[in-house]
Amino acid sequence: MKMRTVSLMIGLMMACSGVQAEEAVKIGFMSELSGPQAALGQDKLDAFMMLVEQNGGKLGGVPVEVIKRDTQLKPEVANQIADELIEKEKVAIVTGFSFTNIMMAVAKKFADANVIVMSASAGPAPLAGEQCDPHVFVMSKQNDQFAETMGVYAKNQGYERVITLAPNYQAGKDFVRGFKVAYATELQDEIYTPLNQLDFSTEISRIMAEQPDAVYVFYPGGLGVSFVRAYQQSGLMGRIPLMSVSTVDGTTLPALKSSAVGVLSASDWGPDLDNAANHQFVQDFTEKYGRIPSEYAAQSYDAARLLDSALAQVEGNVENTEALQAAIKAAEFESVRGNFRFNTNNYPIQDFYVFEVVNQDGDTTLKTVAKTLTDAKDSYYQACPMQ
Q1: Burial of 236 (0-12, 13-18, 19+ CB in 10 A)
Q2: Which helix (H) or strand (E) holds 80?
Q3: pLDDT tens-digit map of 143-157
Q4: With contact defined as beta carbons under 8 Å apart, do 172 and 218 qualify?
Q5: Of 15, 27, 195, 339, which residue is least crowded by CB atoms under 10 Å?
Q6: What domains, with CATH codes, occur in the chain?
């Protein structure tokens, strides 16, 4: 009944607008496509474009033009790109976004320009709470939630002494805060490193000296490759459990291979999740790109699938932003994660899991260890004015 009501609302708003799209819908894609974090952006772009290509260059039955831009992980560059996408390209939708500092730099600018923001990865706490906006949708999670998943796991395992490590920026702090809230035990040590640091010898020495029960890290992309290699080469792997979020996945496992075996990872998606949409996605992505997809790819693919559904509902009319928002909010699509719906703040309500890196059939992949959270909501939605 709810979905039928939403569809009727969209139909009424469409009828009132009386506008039909004839030209290609312009979609901006902003992410890191160069430098140490390029693998994250490329994985998202590959997954998004895979669906566009499978649909013959269309989403929702209408032609789309995807305008790709490299933020270089620099907020000032992201702002320049945002100005270009708004003023010159006149995009209706912008997606991508790996890092919260980039998204926070431009989200309000896009929203104020009546552009739909659909983050495939970044999920900043402020936009989940008091700064939420009807133009802004997050397809992944609120940053704390992966961390909360691993915090619950660490608590259930009885780890009493845990050291955390993360880059010193907003998402790094979010991922540690979420872990601490769920773990509910005082940390043995809390270490933050520069966002561009790739040498972790000092931190490895501290871990060896402090001998914790377990280590928890958030090091995406190239940071994760460097840290996990250092951890394995030091002899700590297998001796002190390494728990992680957004560190070992399809973007880093091709480089890490067997050196990452045994690392634990919390996520909302894994390649072995048992649903038809996921089986097809993993098969298609692996065949096309020669590697297993990451959580970033899965979330971006879901973004494309949702836009495919929403644009079909509004018949390609992106001028009526209110109707498009309602179509996106309805989330009438088959997610590769299985359960998926939006909360009042436009962040997902979904399940979360712990995975372990294993060798399987001659390849390195992730295997589900436990479902830790079911139908989980983020911790900030009640502060969002959209109720």
Answers
A1: middle
A2: helix 75-83
A3: 889 999 999 999 999
A4: yes
A5: 15
A6: 2-141+274-345 (3.40.50.2300), 144-267+352-376 (3.40.50.2300)
